[in-house]
Amino acid sequence: MHTFMERKEGLKIEDYVMGNSINSNSSFCDYTGNGFPLQSVFDSCSEEDNNKFSLGFMELLGVQDFTCPLFDVAQQVPVSTKMESPEQGFNLPATPNSSSVSSGSSEAVNGEPVKVEDDQEEEDDQQKNKTQLKVKKTNQKRQREPRFAFMTKSEVDHLEDGYRWRKYGQKAVKNSPFPRSYYRCTSTSCNVKKRLERCFTDPSIVVTTYEGQHTHPSPLMPRPNLVGSTINSGISAGAAAAFSVPMQRNTQSHYYYQQQQHQHPFANSLSSLNFGHNGPSIDSSFLHERRLCTSGQSLLKDHGLLQDIIPSHMLKEE
DNA sequence: CGCTTTTGACCAGCGC
DNA sequence: GCGCTGGTCAAAAGCG
User: Fold this and answer.
1) Using CA atoms, how far apart are residues A230 and A68, in angstroms rounded to an integer?
2) Is the pTM of this model over 0.90?
3) Where does this protein have compositionally biased stretches of type Low complexity (predicted)?
């Protein structure tokens, strides 16, 4: 069984997901390395060619009675997310205060606003800023924060996740009638971002992508003592804090993707991200959501996570 | 008045 | 080099 990284080297992700190999001798689990397709939700939802895959994957996941969602695209993000290096995100914890992410912003230039005296100087300043930005960007290639994405079946676009977000952009998405919205955490010095978009193959599904790590506790959520649950679930507290899963009002269910080959995909993927070194100990919303997902199942069951994440018929195959 | 949302413009990266 | 696309900025408008 190959790992994702091993396979990634030789194939474009589209080939990998859409290509002949899916019809070859490989089983679905073998094919993905851990039982899940490696193609990102975004690709599968936004790329026309991937539509087929998307539907196929929905079926495989059992969309009719989906289990718990969550989809870790953290580092081995497929082609579409353009991670510089697969190792980066795993070995480097998210660096919320890094200026590299927003290097395109004029605020990032020298860290202070540009004063304008008159038109001439304004132009000069703009020229300076542009050249400085170029130099900065060529010297320091933009680094992406690790990403964590999941699909949520919901009627509302913006799901409450315990944090406050400010919308800073909206873009039309190619091959999708639904725009993508860009949000940033409103907390100062916290540069966590998230993107929201609807899956055009199923408008009832919202794809949420978190990027970065919160440097502060959730401003809206109380933090119940659920440490035991977290430990038993194998989820690092920091990871839970870094990527709080929305608490949705209208959600019926979630999908889960993750891209590693471990037996316990969710736990391994999150812990391997190595988040939470400076984050809050636990974010309740994440655990809260897990409760919603499990709906009656005990969180402390040994295989509870796997059950949440992997369709039962796939578990039987293992 | 302060904060959030909207939206057009700009920029970088990528593929051809 | 050019065009396309994703991501971000920032001014204006909206809202409580």
Assistant:
1) 16
2) no
3) 97-112
Domain covering A147-211 in this structure, CATH number: 2.20.25.80
Ordered by start, the domain boundaries in chain A are: 147-211
A166, closest nucleotide (Cα–C1'): B4
> Positive or negative, the Cα torsion across A197, A200, A203, A207?
negative
pLDDT digits (tens, 9 = 90+) for A16-54: 333 333 333 333 333 333 333 333 443 333 333 344 333
DSSP calls for A18-66: HSGGGGSS--HHHHHSSSS--S-HHHHHH-GGGHHHHHHHHHHHTGGG-
Q: Are A282 and A240 in contact (CB under 8 A)?
A: yes
Is residue A205 scored above 60 in pLDDT?
Answer: yes
Footprint of strand C on the protein (CB under 7 A): A 46, 81, 101-102, 104-108, 168-174, 180, 182, 184, 193, 195
**Per-residue pLDDT averaged across A277-290, rounded?**
39
- Collapsing DSSP to helix, strand or coil, A297 comes out as coil
Higher pLDDT, A190 or A122: A190
Compute the distance between CA of residue A63 and CA of residue A115 in angstroms, rounded to an integer: 55
Pick out the nucleotide with least CA–C1' distance to A84.
B13
Unique residue bearing structure tokens 């087929």: A52
